[in-house]
Design goal:
Shape: elongated
CATH architecture: Roll
Number of helices: 3
Number of strands: 6
Oligomer: single chain
Largest sheet: 6 strands, antiparallel
Number of domains: 1
Structural class: alpha+beta
CATH class: Alpha Beta
Helix content: 25-40%
Distance between the termini: 10 Å
Radius of gyration: 16 Å
Length: 129
């Protein structure tokens, strides 16, 4: 299953050349991941409050393919590549229409209050399998 999230490029997202600043793609895919988790029914605030757990990005491998520009509408596609006991590996792609602009493989882990990696909660593993 692929989740889709729409992003509008604002002036603040661009650099002096008028293209999206490279680090802002990471913000776009973060927003898409948060929306994906919310749509699955996971309340991250309650997870932190009740279980003492938070999600954290462990690794990102990114490829910048083509530029996006001010006022364009982009779509972030998020899909799972793998789920283990402690990791969730996602593929995320940013498109302008049918044109692929950016892609990343993102590894997400779950951390406890002490900042140590812990197993993903079973209900969340079931949701993403």
């Amino acid at each position: 299953m692929t989740h889709r999230f729409t992003v509008r490029v604002y002036y603040e997202d661009t650099d002096m050349a008028g293209i999206v600043y490279y680090a802002n793609y990471l913000k776009f895919i973060e927003r898409a991941r948060s929306d994906w988790v919310r749509e699955m029914g996971v309340d991250q605030t309650a997870l932190r409050r009740d279980e003492g757990m938070v999600f954290a990005v462990r690794r990102v491998e990114a490829d910048y393919i083509a530029p996006a520009h001010f006022d364009e509408t982009l779509t972030v596609h998020t899909s799972q590549r793998a789920v283990t006991g402690a990791r969730l590996i996602l593929n995320q792609q940013v498109f302008r229409g049918d044109t692929l602009l950016f892609q990343a493989e993102v590894t997400v882990v779950c951390l406890n209050e002490a900042g140590h990696a812990v197993r993903l909660p079973a209900n969340i593993r079931r949701m993403v399998h």
